[in-house]
């Protein structure tokens, strides 16, 4: 799978990935065939095969592209603010904003598709680790209550996994983006002295 992530893309391929992300976010992807996708993007199947050798690999590559861009935007948002509580809130709320365009069908397709679910799970683990680092920095700076950062991050990771697996949506009716905003509020209010 690293082969897809490591492949250099041309400007046209990057544009196609952006179009694929927009299409998948809006309508999901499980129901599309490669012929459907090519027709929607007004390109040939051979153009799609230049992106990935089959639909599963294309879904994987598009999911990687989506999360890579989302991560860059989240980190840019965090870089704009100061203070531990504000950085944690900015991080989690920004994650939520990145998921706002995602339709329920897209999120359901991700949960039901192993190659896409793997990417989401990996990004969820990385996000939970990033929150752990932000908490540790805040505790070390005396800006946050002296909590066990690894435990707090584990709690966050558990909720993030439940969001990713669609359990929060099923139990609460909250969309993933809303759930991340609620998690940000709960976490930052609980950490402030």
Explain what this protein looks like in three dimensions.
It is a single chain. The protein has a domain at 57-191: Orthogonal Bundle (Tetracycline Repressor, domain 2), CATH 1.10.357. The chain contains eleven helices and no strands. The chain has helices at residues 2-6, 11-27, 34-41, 45-51, 55-79, 84-99, 104-112, 114-140, 149-164, 167-172, 176-191.
How would you concisely characterize the structure shown here?
With 193 residues, the protein is an all-alpha fold.
Based on the model shown, name its key terms.
79% helix; Tetracycline Repressor, domain 2; 193 residues; 0% strand; mainly alpha; disordered N terminus; 11 helices; Homeodomain-like_sf
Average pLDDT rating: 89
CATH superfamily of the domain at 57-191: Tetracycline Repressor, domain 2
Radius of gyration: 18 Å
Low-confidence regions: 1-6
The major beta sheet can be summarized as: none
Structural shape: elongated
Ends apart, CA distance between termini: 44 Å
Content-based structural category: mainly alpha
Query: Total strand count, please?
Result: 0
Tally of individual helices? 11
Strand content: under 5%
Q: What CATH architecture of the domain at 57-191 would you give? A: Orthogonal Bundle
The succession of helices and strands, N to C, reads HHHHHHHHHHH
CATH topology of the domain at 57-191: Tetracycline Repressor, domain 2
Multimer state: single chain
CATH C-level class of the domain at 57-191: Mainly Alpha
Helix content: over 70%
Organism: Rhodococcus artemisiae
Pfam families: TetR_N (PF00440)
InterPro entries: Homeodomain-like_sf (IPR009057), HTH-type_TetR-like_transc_reg (IPR050109), HTH_TetR (IPR001647), Tet_transcr_reg_TetR-rel_C_sf (IPR036271)
DNA-binding region: 33-52
